[in-house]
Amino acid sequence: MRTPLRPLARILSARARGENPDTIERENIRLRQEKSRDTARARSEGRLLLLGLAFVMGFGVIGVRMGLMASADPVEPRSASAGAQILAGRADLTDRNGRMLATNLLTHSLYAQPKDMVDPARVARELVAIFPDLDEKAILARFTDGRSFVWIKRKLSPEQMQAVHDIGDPGLLFGPREMRLYPNGRLAAHILGGASFGAEGVHSAEVIGTAGIEKALDAQLRDPALAGTPVALSLDLTVQATTAEVLGVGMKMMNAKGAAAILLDVDTGEILTMVSLPDFDPNDRPQPLLKGDPADSPIFNRAVQGVYELGSTFKIFAAAQAMEIGLMTPDTMVDANAPMVWGKHRIREFQNKNYGPLLSVRDVIVKSSNVGTAHIALLIGAVRQQAFLKSLGFFEATKVELVEAAGAKPLLPSRWADIVTITTSYGHGMSASPLHLATAYATIANGGVAIQPTLLRRDGPPQGVRVMSEETARHAVSMLRGVVTDGTASLGEVKGYEVAGKTGTADKPRVGGGYYDDKVINTFASMFPASDPKYVLIVTLDEPVETTGSEPRRTAGWTSVPVAAEIIRRVAPLLGLRPQVEPVAANAVTLVRN
Amino acid sequence: MRPVLYALSLLAVMGLAFWAYRENYATQKSLGVVENLQAEIGRLREALAVQRAEWAYLNRPDRLRELAAINFDRLGLLPFEPEQFGSGAQVAYPPPPGLFVSGAVDVSGISDLVGEVVPTNELQVP
Known about the structure:
The structure holds 2 protein chains of 2 kinds. Chain A is α+β, with helices and mostly antiparallel strands. Chain A has 17 helices and 16 strands.
């Protein structure tokens, strides 16, 4: 009940006592204000309490949930739909048409828990009967030396697994394993490399790439976000198989100890074929050599890692550069009087011939004149020569997607003296891999645009830097065509495909310095068809010798060129290239009407 | 009025409880089915991977080349070569429809017969 501010009774009595009645009113106002303040405080205290409780509950719920999540065992969500995201860890590799190059296969590993084993001696004996490569004594020692866990085999075939099952010992256990399988065996072995196991557990193991593209693209292949999407390489399996077959036969016929071939699409830089012989089975990758020359091991990729002096195949670069900077035209006559004396060096032609006194630039290439090229290079000068070779990619390792590529840097002379300018112009003194050569020839073949070689399928045309004019490139291609029609590579003519190319014969350098007399590297760098080059093919043979004649022949024109020609004859139809001439009439009955 | 409302809400609670009970079991059952299906999908995927690998293994170029060589007398397969490209002009037109002859008679067969009836050497074609 509301108290009046001026209660009549008290005011009257106050007045009677002669006091000021206003004090009563003020006193009442004060009491009323105190009361309302108390209720307001009580209400806000209640609200604060409520809010505090709400926060405590909220944080409490979150805290309890976090605690539960941290302590609970992980469970796969039962209701979520299983998609591709839980598929096999490592992505497949396919060729450009989707044919399988590498895939995963589920198999089992074998391990033992010796403490559960009933009869270790019998188990060891029977295991050795199944796996002859195991040593019975060693494995029995490991079963009985008190350890509780022993790995026995990483991969088992189903038959072996059944045989181990039949031993029937509770101490032998199997764990699932995903293994990498290369169904095509030796084909493209150097590109694929190989795979092995990384961190291993009982229930699963990491599959990691150990070499080649498997190692270079390891992160991408294992990325769970990509959900095992197959990676399409630029290789064409059919073309690769054909090239490997022909090159293998050619290597045997030419008595070479090694061979390499690269087929490159000149516009996109896609590597359609890369073969290096001898090869190996990536399912069972051999160990690298611990001593001696690594190039003697089959795992050595000659096409990418083999850094060689590539010989006369370099001459076209000097000629192209001379035309590009306007020093010369294909018909300019240059001094080709052999031998040429430069300081204490004498530059000679093959078999001490003399093509001089004057040769046109075109004939320098067609006849492969060292002296003519040397004079062209001296006119160009060391600085411009280096810049041009650099723009063609000869000064750094190729960026192809192989883990070995980064280690294969071209070998360059430390000082670029005039004699280096001369020798480099005909491919001695500096070394590069066949892949470098293929890249540079592709630049000439596609009209002067530098490309990056790649092992991945490219869908759009890549952007490259123009390093020479289209006219220069056209002249260079026509000179290379001349080498095949009237020059050193006459065995390279393939009817209908207008092969253009340049031979290169380089003496192998001795380990101690100097060169071998009877060991050569023969290279044929070619492109086809010359009227509109689509593909570049490099064939390199290591220490070939052609023995059908009266004396052994070691020039590229007799060894690499016929092998390359046969490769082109077999491979060009597979690439869908139609021969340019009218095909011979088949034995078809011609319809005659009368 | 109020007791009726109490009774109705009690019934509603019981009905909802029964519904929730059934839904719970139906969900558990569906989850079980989904799990089985997923396990089966996993097994089938594994089998598919094995079969893909086997297909690639059986179709490897080395093996196909050897098979083509072994069965050469039956199949006569040769490597693809430039000479096998043809041009459109080499494709023959279909032969023109010939003269349609019906009821053809074996002329040499009846010549003797004709000779007996008519004593001449002329052949008579009906």
